[in-house]
């Protein structure tokens, strides 16, 4: 079956946008907005995402709005089917310009009716998601012992029901797979030109005192620059999350105006690629991401599916959109391997590291690294935000 587009089109772009990007008011409960819930001046956040999707995904405004609605519904259906299918679940993804098709893989043909009843398309496969994940983790363990220099990344590819290994030298990658003990029937090696690298850069920056995702920050008073991810809190302390490779122990940060900003409280790289900074009283944590035309208000951190549209903000290349290609990807940088990343076809540039990635108004993660650039096109790798929040006991600042 097809995820219905009729309702998305019938309500019109403005109504669909309101349904996706607003939270219903609760009658009789007056609110006193604090600094992190103040309204964004002069901008419809839904329009910001729709405009970027039109530019980068080649969609019309109506298609972009329909895609956001379909992807939101697909995420809810996927969660229900994951629970119902149990050990037979083998992954899910969306397809089509408006994400109108939800594909759900299972190893049990007898459960096809359950999948169809939810409006999704069943795909019968040989291996469960648990089996594929076990094969990938065998590669992760092998990389911890001896990192494969010519093997930049590997991941569970739910659409192929395989673990895919990218390699500049396939023969060396095959040896890496054999050494790992992973089931060779579950793994394929492909020749790849991806060259992952952390994206630190330098450039003149605008003045800002609000803490906003996508704005730049400097390490101490130097020239090394990364991007703010999402605003967070821990207890009474405000701050932001970013990439771990942007941090050093006890390092301080300054904002784009060179005003003292904060101090790194925790970081991890490689293995993971995340960090968080506690800011001082000069900076106010906002639930905002800087886009090409204004600010987007972050509402939550519900994970998106493979195939979903995502957009990224960065201090160098700005506001860019693309789609999720794979989840749970292991990426080998020269500094070491980082696991459980999201791979997208969004381009990125040095200086974008740590910047926020969203699906609609839902936080997905922060930029870890990339391959290629925004002139010829490229690939980017994203550290999931919910893992960061859990690792440091943080709460996402939302509007």
Automatic annotation (TrEMBL):
One of its GO terms (biological process) is proteolysis. One of its GO terms (cellular component) is extracellular region. The active site is at 245 (charge relay system), 273 (charge relay system), 353 (charge relay system). Keywords: Disulfide bond, Hydrolase, Protease, Serine protease, Signal, Zymogen. PROSITE patterns: PROKAR_LIPOPROTEIN, TRYPSIN_HIS, TRYPSIN_SER. Residues 225-388 form the Peptidase S1 domain. Residues 127-183 form the Peptidase S1A alpha-lytic prodomain domain. Residues 1-27 form the signal peptide. It comes from the Bacteria. One of its GO terms (molecular function) is serine-type endopeptidase activity. The keyword Signal applies. Belongs to the peptidase S1 family. This is Peptidase alpha-lytic pro domain protein.
């Amino acid at each position: 079956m097809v995820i219905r587009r009729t309702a998305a089109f019938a309500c019109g772009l403005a109504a669909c946008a309101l349904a996706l990007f607003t939270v219903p008011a609760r009658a009789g409960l007056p609110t006193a907005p604090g600094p992190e819930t103040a309204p964004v001046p002069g901008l419809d956040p839904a329009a910001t995402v729709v405009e970027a999707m039109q530019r980068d995904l080649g969609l019309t405004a109506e298609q972009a709005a329909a895609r956001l609605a379909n992807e939101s519904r697909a995420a809810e259906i996927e969660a229900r089917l994951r629970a119902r299918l149990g050990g037979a679940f083998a992954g899910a993804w969306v397809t089509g310009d408006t994400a109108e098709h939800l594909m759900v893989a299972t190893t049990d043909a007898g459960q096809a009716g359950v999948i169809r009843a939810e409006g999704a398309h069943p795909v019968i496969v040989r291996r469960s998601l648990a089996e594929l994940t076990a094969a990938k983790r065998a590669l992760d363990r092998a990389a911890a012992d001896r990192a494969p220099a010519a093997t930049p990344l590997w991941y569970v590819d739910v659409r192929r029901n395989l673990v895919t290994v990218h390699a500049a030298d396939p023969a060396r990658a095959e040896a890496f797979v054999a050494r790992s003990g992973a089931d060779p029937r579950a793994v394929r090696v492909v020749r790849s030109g991806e060259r992952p690298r952390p994206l630190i850069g330098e450039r003149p920056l605008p003045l800002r005192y609000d803490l906003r995702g996508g704005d730049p920050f400097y390490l101490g008073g130097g020239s090394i620059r990364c991007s703010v991810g999402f605003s967070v809190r821990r207890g009474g302390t405000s701050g932001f999350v970013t990439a771990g490779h942007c941090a050093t122990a006890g390092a301080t940060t300054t904002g784009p105006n060179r005003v003292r900003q904060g101090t790194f409280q925790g970081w991890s790289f490689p293995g993971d690629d995340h960090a968080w900074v506690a800011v001082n009283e000069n900076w106010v944590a906002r639930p905002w991401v800087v886009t090409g035309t204004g600010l987007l208000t972050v509402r939550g951190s519900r994970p998106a599916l493979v195939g979903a549209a995502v957009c990224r903000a960065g201090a160098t290349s700005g506001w860019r959109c693309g789609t999720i290609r794979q989840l749970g990807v292991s990426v080998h940088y020269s500094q070491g391997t980082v696991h459980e990343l999201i791979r997208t076809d969004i381009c990125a540039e040095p200086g974008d590291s740590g910047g926020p990635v969203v699906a609609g108004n839902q936080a997905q993660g922060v930029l870890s690294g990339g391959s290629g650039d925004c002139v010829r096109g490229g690939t980017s790798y994203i550290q999931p935000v919910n893992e960061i929040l859990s690792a440091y006991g943080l709460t996402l600042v939302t509007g």
